[in-house]
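Memo to structure team: turn this sequence into structure tokens by end of day. - J.P.
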Amino acid sequence: MANLGIPTNTLQVLEKYNFSFQKKFGQNFLIDTHILEGIINGAGITEDDCVLEIGPGIGTMTQYLCESARFVVAVEIDKNLIPILNDTLSEYDNKIIINEDVLKVDINELCNKYNEGRPIKVVANLPYYITTPIIMGLFESHVPLDSITVMVQKEVAERMQVGPGTKDYGALSLAVQYYSEPHVIMTVSAGCFIPRPNVDSAVIKLTAHQKNPVSVRNEAFMFSLIRAAFNQRRKTLSNALVNGGINTTRDEICKALADMGLSETIRGEALTLEQFAKLSDLLSHA
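Reply from structure team:
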């Protein structure tokens, strides 16, 4: 099959199947062989790896993955793309195509079936609107993960790796850094896609921690604190938590902050991951 990273080959496939892009799925297909090679290299794909690809589209990246990995599980939500994928990937026998919403797939079951329960590598060109739910779903379900290498909106990639006190710092930054080590591999201009998106993208690799960088008694409670803190980021942390439905009182919050040597007027964006973990431990036993 022709290399789909070459634009003319992609256009021929789209024409052959009279394919119409679905805006609801945020479809933008990559047409740059250098970027594709960079993603494979950046993700560190080897012949020992089982790769979960989310949103293979017409199989552009999947071709590269099949060439490099031991096995590829490609999960595509758009049923109109399945016959195209069966065609463009027909020469590879080290793949399976699943027509499903990845948020509804039992990834632990896939890991057991295709990788004997060992950690998998995830590679994806994610629609911008669903980036956070997919990444958080993978982490929070505690599937065996080696890394997640994703193409996302450039601003989202930046948000994943910033620290306290910056305008981009938020719940996503804290969650990604709790579960992984983020590293931007490359930026990708809008002109590398068909159709051309309105913004530039970035490829970011999230290497899963062997051990979380902080220890916290109740992980779910800590993240409920973090979400409440950033849902109303202009408010003080104590006000945001009280208004955010956290099952604790203002007095308990202020006492916990005082115990940590922090002002009761501090905002959530000033706290580090370690401080949120400490606050969570204090309040979950308040």
